[in-house]
Amino acid sequence: MGKRGSLDGGSSADDVEAPLLLGAGDGERPAAWVRALLAHGYPAVASGPAACAAVCALVDLGGAHRGARNMLAVLAWVFLWWVTGAVPLAVASMAPLFLFPLFGVAGADAVAKAYMDDVISLVLGSFILALAIEHYQIHRRLALNITSLFCGDPVRPPLLLLGITGTTFFLSMWIHNTACTVMMMPVATGILQRLPRGGDGAEETGCQEEEVRRFSKAVVLGVVYASAIGGMATLTGTGVNIILVGMWSTYYPEQEPITFSSWMSFGLPMALIIFFTLWVTLCLMYCTKNTGKALSAYLDRSHLRRELTLLGPMAFAEKMVLAVFGGLIVLWMTRTLTDDIPGWGALFHNNVGDGTVTIMMATLLFIIPSGKNNGERLMDWNKCRKLQWDIILLLGAGFAVADGFSSSGLTDILSDGLRFLKDAPTMVIVPVACIVSAVITEFTSDDATTTLVLPLFAELAKSINVHPALLMISGAVGAQLSYLLPTGSPSNVVGFSSGHITIKDLVVTGMPLKIVGIASLTILLPSLGPHIFGIDSRS
Does this model's pTM top 0.70? Predict the structure, then answer.
């Protein structure tokens, strides 16, 4: 009967698809075609090529910059596919593999190499470690400890968010923000696993589950952003600050060096301002007066402590996974230290990277016995079937875009466009430099953006007679404000891979943080800079 209903004009999915394949009656054909196109999402699919064609037709950067124009066109195509979800994320992320060669942005081999480098190895190894933590329920133990400490009785969502994000912020000050996200995300998802994700259709239950769903977004976004913000406070929190120190000493050896204490004197106040903005934003956007009531059914302090007791002591396998993870964090932190005290990477002529040790430590999981069954090891490849290769392809696309900026000459055009800063006041130079870097960083990693823009700003400072710290520090901070897209940083990738947030969530929540970050830099750098870095308005 169901089949007959469909043939007679019922509302099955087959009817929507049929006009594309078999046609329809003359009277209903236009409407059926429109419904079919909308149902298949073809307007979103067409938006990418249409934007690409529009840029090629309307943007004129001069005959010498045809490659830069083509790069803009390709970027518009890929960006719209990412945002609209017109095609699967992995497919949209692979688009540069054919668009770059076709538009002359880069050769096939060059763009393909961007999809596997040390940072991607870092993410891949981190994903394997996260799967091991999840498999042995280690995140559940950590989640129970943090939740029972901060949830309150009754549950107070703002306090719980402050506990989770504050813990993440503090840890990220001392370890790399990517490592912090990888460590804290299983804790966050362990808390969220106690909360329901499906509905039974009841109106009251549906309202509660909507509150739970919104709070779940807040937890994941809080971990992602708190790890990025905490990393800004110290030199060890992120690779961007380390790159800044290295380039500063290379380009301006006669200037006072940027030390750990001097940077923290500047970075910590700015990080605290952005962190407070994060907490307020999460509370206002994702918590209501009914959120605590909705969470109380699943989060009770006495029950949480009882569950923690029932877990018993840690098993051998759990201890080994934590030992591997702890060893990895130590290796991350000590690979490079200072110019006077080289890290262990110097033993290998600095040929190793963070991805090198991440893959090495992840490999140990496939060697160390679990202690449960004879011959069983901590991990096997069947446990890695949940690896999210689409996220890895997304990160590779970001690196391809970064290379395209440089190879197409788009970077040179941006540099020429900034020469108007020659006679501009400090309150204009700082936000403009920060915004330029903050826009580029959304499409590639923080480190790649820093490596791209800091040489540009160093040379620009000389040509327009501006103190170099104004441009270089602004560029480095802007590179860390990658809050809007998954491609912005590995931390964003880790959060996006949790399945709790979308690109829209990143954009809506990250935009206030980005604005406050630029505003706080604009105020703090001219006011604190002369005392900390010896900055004058003109060099």
Answer: no
